[in-house]
């Protein structure tokens, strides 16, 4: 019997649906991984919405003191991009390169010995 592929979360936009489909059709996810994917999907949709809002907008705005600063959506977009990268890396999906080394889980670093200063 074939395993049923779950649909994307309600309210998912085009970018999120594309990301969801590209992952769930190729990989079986554990419940904790599915939660990470849900957050990644939401993040992808937020990035699309911010990109659309920034289309034609100035990259700088005047703050309350009149100084020109980066547009808040530009700053948030950068943060969301970093978050999306971390979420996708947390899913530990294979890269598709058969010769690539398998990903390893990082363990706690060992204690370092004390070096003498002499």
How would you describe this protein?
By secondary structure, this protein is mainly α. It has a domain at 14-91. Helix content is 47%, strand content 5%. It is built from three helices and two strands; from the N terminus they run ααββα. The chain has helices at residues 14-24, 31-54, 72-91; strands spanning 60-62, 68-70. A hairpin with a 5-residue loop joins β1 and β2. α1 runs antiparallel to α2 and α2 packs antiparallel against α3 (72-91). The longest helix is centred in the middle third of the chain and has 24 residues, at 31-54.
Entry summary:
The chain is mainly alpha-helical and 118 residues long.
Write a concise keyword list for the protein shown above:
mainly alpha, about 5% strand
Helix count from the secondary structure assignment: 3
Strand order of the largest sheet: 1-2
The overall strand count is 2
Q: Tell me, what's the shape?
A: flat
Q: What is the ordering of alpha helices and beta strands?
A: HHEEH
Major sheet details: 2 strands, antiparallel
Average pLDDT value? 86
Termini separation comes to: 69 Å
The radius of gyration is 20 Å
Low-confidence blocks of residues: none
State the helicity in percent bands: 40-55%
Q: How would you classify the helix and strand content by structural class?
A: mainly alpha
User: What multimeric state do the chains show?
Assistant: single chain
Beta-strand level of the residues, as a percent range?
5-15%
List the helices and strands and how they pair.
Blueprint: H1 14-24, H2 31-54, E1 60-62, E2 68-70, H3 72-91
Antiparallel strand pairs: 1-2
Helix pairs in contact: 1-2, 2-3
């Amino acid at each position: 019997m074939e395993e049923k592929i779950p649909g994307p979360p309600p309210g998912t936009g085009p970018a999120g649906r594309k990301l969801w489909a590209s992952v769930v059709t190729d990989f079986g996810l554990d419940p904790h991984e599915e939660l990470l994917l849900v957050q990644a999907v939401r993040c992808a949709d937020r990035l699309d919405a911010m990109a659309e809002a920034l289309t034609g907008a100035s990259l700088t705005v005047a703050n309350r003191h009149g100084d020109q600063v980066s547009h808040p959506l530009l700053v948030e977009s950068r943060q969301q991009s970093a978050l999306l990268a971390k979420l996708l890396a947390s899913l530990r999906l294979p890269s598709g390169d058969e010769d690539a080394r398998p990903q390893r889980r990082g363990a706690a670093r060992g204690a370092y010995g004390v070096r003498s200063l002499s």
